[in-house]
Amino acid sequence: MTQSRPGPAGRTPRHLWVIGIIALLWNCIGAFDYLMTQTKNAAYMSAFPPEQLAWFYGLPAWVIAAWAIAVWGGVLGAVLLLLRRRLAVPVFLVSLAGLVVTTFQNWVLSNAAEIFPDTFSRVFSAMIFAIAVALYFYARAMRERGVLR
Q1: How far apart are CA 65 and CA 2, in angstroms?
Q2: At residue 77, does pLDDT exceed 50?
Q3: Which of 67, 68, 69, 134 has a 20 to 30 Å separation from 105 between CA atoms?
Q4: How many helices (H) and strands (E) does the chain have?
């Protein structure tokens, strides 16, 4: 395994700021969704039909815990990335693990495919997964290039 040398002191690639800010905004949207769902915010949840509300409110505690880890891990990972901290890598990995658990439960172990039959829900779930994977690999690459300390 080759060790990469850190770049010149203070030199952070511009793309780190762009990706870090977008990652933070993206993950804050997920955190907002989590909070609105868990607090059963009437205005937010009114967009869902009764069968989807029942599905959300019937999620087992372990799934809600994995969802929280995924969401808040993503927010923390983005903040750590912007702070150029190496800890962003394992935090993004833990967040991704939480997402894997919730995605597997939602689409394999439960009836989410019946409750959310539209193509948008499936594509959006895949997009969330792809972005989480990409953020983990991006943070790892930045660590290996010596950008994260």
Answers
A1: 37
A2: yes
A3: 134
A4: 7, 0
- What is the chain's alpha carbon radius of gyration, rounded to the nearest angstrom? 17
Q: Which helix (H) or strand (E) holds 115?
A: helix 112-115
Lowest mean pLDDT among 22-26, 57-61, 115-119: 115-119
Q: What pLDDT, in 10s, does the model give residues 3-19?
A: 545 455 558 999 999 99
State the CB neighbour count (10 A cutoff) for residue 63. Answer: 18
The domain locations on the chain are: 14-144
* N-terminal to C-terminal alpha carbon distance within the chain: 19
**Apex CA 126: angle with CA 15 and CA 60, to 5°?**
115
How far is it, in rounded angstroms, from Cα 72 to Cα 119? 26
* Spatial distance between the Cα atoms of 56 and 50, rounded to a whole number of angstroms: 10
Specify the pTM: 0.90
In this prediction, residue 2 has a pLDDT band, given cuts at 50, 70 and 90, of very low
Cα–Cα distance, 90 to 78 (Å, whole number) = 12
